[in-house]
Design a protein that fits this description.
Elements (H helix, E strand, L loop, with lengths): L5 H9 L3 E7 L5 H12 L5 E6 L12 E7 L14 E4 L9 H17 L2 E7 L6 H15 L3 E5 L3 H6 L1 H4 L5 E5 L10 H16 L3 E6 L4 E3 L11 E5 L5 E11 L2 E6 L3 H4 L4 E3 L15
Parallel strand pairs: 1-5, 1-6, 2-5, 6-7, 9-13
Antiparallel strand pairs: 2-3, 3-4, 8-12, 10-11, 10-13, 11-12
């Protein structure tokens, strides 16, 4: 049976509202179909949300995060990247070694999209689908989310085996599609340059923020890991990510950061989500 067109697949998915997870290899057109499906969904009388779990090539918010975008009925869906209504810091641009924060962040934002009243929630995922790690990641994500629809792009025997547990659920429908017609494989240097642009855009209008380190909790690592240029997440009392920040210095019980978080929201910061990433080449050096 030939793979359905994007229009046919979108029609079938939108006829049964719920969560849709996109699964496919690198550069198969997952993000292109994400925008197409969200654009088609906003034409219906219901809210639409997208959750971007591709931490390396983000289309919602900065890299190293899971991002949530939300549209009211009748809204226009602009080209990606989209601003993040909410985000969860993962602390890396690769899932390898960071499966737990990626899974928790994805499940948390899918749940948040449902709380906001989204009838359609579309989840983009990384291109890590091969090997044991890729299989474990995708199977765990599908098990946590329990989607109504799974879209397999350019499926083969490996991908079919990966989604077999989800496909066995009679409440889940699997749609098999060909890759995007304009598909092109990007070099790793192009991916790195794209991440640099996204980080630069995110930090462009940053300011200096001073926090009392002794009054904060630390997650995803120990406080001793703080060092200049470290990328961190700023969390509220519920450990929800408010914004990202770059450490300028940490001394004498004071933590000085470079962040786009506004002063009123900075008063809500109660914790620091740590990583091993340093960003001297991404964030502008001028503090505003």
């Amino acid at each position: 049976m030939p793979a359905p067109s994007w229009e046919e697949a979108a029609e079938r998915i939108l006829a049964a509202p719920g969560v849709t997870v996109l699964v496919g290899d690198v550069d198969t057109g997952k993000t292109s179909f994400l925008r197409y499906l969200c654009g088609a969904a906003v034409g219906q009388p219901a809210a639409v949300a997208a959750v971007d779990a591709d931490v390396g090539q983000s289309s919602i918010g900065p890299p190293a995060t899971v991002g949530l975008a939300f549209w009211a009925p009748g809204s226009a869906v602009a080209p990606v990247p989209w601003p993040a209504r909410e985000m969860c810091f993962v602390g890396s641009v690769t899932p390898v070694g960071h499966l737990l924060p990626l899974l928790v962040g994805t499940a948390r934002l899918v749940g948040r999209a449902r709380e906001l009243g989204a009838a359609h929630v579309v989840v983009d995922t990384t291109g890590l689908v091969r090997g044991d790690v890729g299989r474990i990641l995708k199977q765990a994500k599908l098990d946590l989310i329990r989607p109504r629809h799974v879209v397999l792009i350019d499926p083969d025997a490996d991908l079919d085996e990966t989604v077999a547990p989800a496909a066995a659920d009679p409440a889940t429908r699997v749609h098999r599609m060909a890759s995007a017609p304009e598909r092109r494989r990007r070099a790793e240097t192009s991916r790195s340059e794209n991440r640099a642009r996204l980080f630069d855009t995110y930090f462009r209008f940053s300011r200096e923020c001073r926090l009392a380190a002794d009054s904060l909790f630390f997650t995803m690592g120990r406080r001793e890991a703080l060092r200049p240029n470290l990328l961190v997440g700023l969390a509220d009392r519920a450990n929800r990510t408010l914004a990202l920040a770059r450490v300028l210095r940490a001394a004498g019980g004071e933590l000085v950061l470079h962040t786009p978080l506004t002063a009123p929201l900075a008063e809500q910061v109660r914790g620091i989500q740590l990583s091993r990433m340093t960003l001297p080449e991404y964030a502008p050096t001028q503090v505003r």
